[in-house]
Amino acid sequence: MLNQADDGSLSGSSNTHPSTSANSPLIFQNSCTTKVKPLLLSQQWKIENFVPVMKFALPGQCLRSNLFRDQMLPEAFWQLCLYPGGKRAENANHVSLFLKMSSTSPTREVRIKVEYRFYFLSENGSPLFSNVNVGEFHAKPPKGGHSWGLRNIPRQKKRKDNVPNLDSYGEFLQVLNCVRSDGSLMVSCRIELIPDISRIRCVPTDESDSTMPKKMVCSEYFKRQETALNSGNMADCTLECNGQVIQVNKFVLSTHSEVFKAMFAHEEFLENKEAKVVIKDTDIDSVRMMVRFMYCGDISFSSNVEGVMMLAERYQISELKEMCEQFLCSRVNKYNALEMYDLADMYNCYGLKEAVVCTVQKNKDFILNFPPWESFKETNPRLMNELMEQVVRGIDYSPPPFKRQRFYCCKQESCCDD
């Protein structure tokens, strides 16, 4: 025990016994846990015939990967941008590689700090080149995008004899050390971040401190779901489209759709009284794909992805709509860009709009002389103005400042391209 002396100092008392509670575990009446889980995203991108691409590419010419994102971070999507001839004239004879983050809404500001890893992979998937950096991505209106990456990929030291036709590309021998035997370059990117911590829920400790695995998936469960869908056993409702009928269960539909949930929760609704939902303005195959997604969680797209997206929007099935949008983003080209932009506006798909804007930026001359452009201007003047505004604002050629970041495997300077 500590006693206070006359001079104000503390001294120990020798005739007291040590407290038995000091070594006892503390017991709290209330305890809680905030479960923070990093979000991991990745993309693999194959570029064919990289040897001639490397030789003939001019500084500033850019190859772009498909857009990718995660439903846990719906406000942002990502894209790899590779410049085979370097991003600028001073980067000539080097490869520039950037990771671009864009906001899914042109009016939303998004700010995220991430760790991103670049790899060039061999045939067996092992990294021939790797680099890791941390960057703060800040996308703000009106541009809505921000990039971090490497302007000068370091040249490798050892030549690979199995790269085809390298004798005529002597000046690029060291850079092309990462090219595969089939002439392709395999680029991989992995992103790690923490989602907005203000959205993370705090739970009582006894709710989160389970020793059981947090998530286990049984493949047989989905097989049984598929069997139940195909057989119609225990179904208590029907979906009718163009005279064809699908036997379904109200519980499954209500679980995945707020619209179906509202239908079956109110007795006065005709759909609930008759246990039948008539779906118009679509085809039976699209309805089957929507129902399969709600039962089994997967979908295989064919030519009717637009019909599935329309149903996902109508019945508010957000995960299905996002999968449709991602599929359409991968199919945008200079021939269908205007049609895709119209579709994106109809169903409020900001990611698809951004994919179209990127395509138009790279193919302006072709699209402005494409016959459907005149029809697009006449029938959709609002969309035409919106599209061209995004195309103009989305291009920024101002040189970004150099900023040092953390390094991994090779000493390569990471730079911001805002």
UniProtKB/TrEMBL annotation:
Region (Disordered): 1-22
SUPFAM superfamilies: POZ domain, TRAF domain-like
Matching InterPro entries: BTB/POZ_dom (IPR000210), MATH/TRAF_dom (IPR002083), SKP1/BTB/POZ_sf (IPR011333), TRAF-like (IPR008974)
Residue ranges occupied by any BTB domain in the UniProt entry: 235-303
Biased composition (Polar residues): 10-22
Domain MATH stretches: 40-191
Protein's name according to its UniProt entry: BTB domain-containing protein
TM regions (residue ranges): none
Top-rank taxon, per record: Eukaryota
A biological process term (GO) from this entry: protein catabolic process
The organism of origin for this protein: Syphacia muris
